[in-house]
From TrEMBL:
Source organism per UniProt: Syncephalis pseudoplumigaleata
Keyword annotations of the record: Nucleus, Repeat, rRNA processing, WD repeat
This protein's GO CC annotations: nucleolus
Highest taxon listed in the record's lineage: Eukaryota
Name used for this protein in its record: UTP15 C terminal-domain-containing protein
InterPro entries (UniProt xref): U3_snoRNA-assocProt_15_C
Domain U3 small nucleolar RNA-associated protein 15 C-terminal: 40-181
Entry keyword annotation includes Cytoplasm: no
Region (Disordered): 199-218
Entry annotated with the keyword Nucleus: yes
Cellular localization per UniProt: Nucleus
Listed GO biological process terms: positive regulation of transcription by RNA polymerase I; rRNA processing
Length: 218
């Protein structure tokens, strides 16, 4: 016995949806098959920007992990500006971790630090920080530094630089003293001149008759 099936009638909305889906599939196929490119966007399009994660420097990573010696090694690698190196040293001083960062080093590991100190200790903005670091190095390694020819050479150079700096400071102190003496004499001279001018003006006022006296005499 033959069974007949009746085709189910679709509503107008369903017909519209099917046609749209077929049109979208054809458009996508044509776009890809003809080498279409991505939409470049217009001024009215809304752009969602991805958040950039700031990449930490290697020395900063070690610093955050409390690996102070490794942080000092990283910043002295030659990749960073002197101000960055000094900033890290200041941070180590602030944390009370400078001794930890400087300790347990041989002459090879100390060489970059001593070279940096020797090169930049005369610059005024770095002098105070690097002086503290130099004192710390000498305090820790005083007994063994002379045993290494490399360290001895760097220490002699550092000593010569500091000696020159001290001598210049002494000369500046002498010049400052002479300047203060000259300025003091100049101030005294100006004060004396001012007193003399005031005295002369007072004497002129005393000698010159007043207008009332002149009228009476007339």
């Amino acid at each position: 016995m033959l069974s007949l099936r009746h085709r189910r009638q679709m509503t107008a909305e369903q017909v519209y949806r099917v046609k749209n889906e077929e049109t979208l599939r054809r458009s996508t196929y044509d776009f890809r098959s003809h080498g279409g490119t991505a939409h470049e966007g217009t001024q009215d399009d809304f752009v969602v920007e991805g958040r950039r994660v700031k990449r930490l420097a290697l020395y900063d990573k070690h610093l955050r992990a409390f690996q102070y010696g490794s942080a000092l090694d990283a910043v002295l690698s030659g990749k960073y500006e002197p101000v960055t190196v000094v900033s890290l040293l200041q941070e180590l001083i602030h944390r009370g971790a400078l001794r930890t960062a400087v300790s347990r080093r041989d002459d090879v590991a100390l060489e970059p630090l001593l070279k940096f100190i020797t090169k930049y200790i005369r610059q005024p903005r770095y002098a105070s920080t690097l002086t503290l670091v130099a004192e710390m190095v000498l305090d820790i390694y005083e007994a063994v530094l002379a045993e290494s020819s490399l360290m001895a050479k760097l220490l002699h150079k550092l000593h010569a630089i500091i000696h020159m700096e001290v001598r210049q400071q002494q000369e500046l102190t002498c010049v400052m003293g002479a300047l203060e003496m000259v300025l003091s004499m100049s101030m005294l001279s100006n004060a004396a001149s001012h007193r003399e001018s005031m005295t002369a003006a007072a004497q002129e006022d005393a000698v010159e008759p007043s207008p009332a006296v002149m009228k009476t005499n007339a």
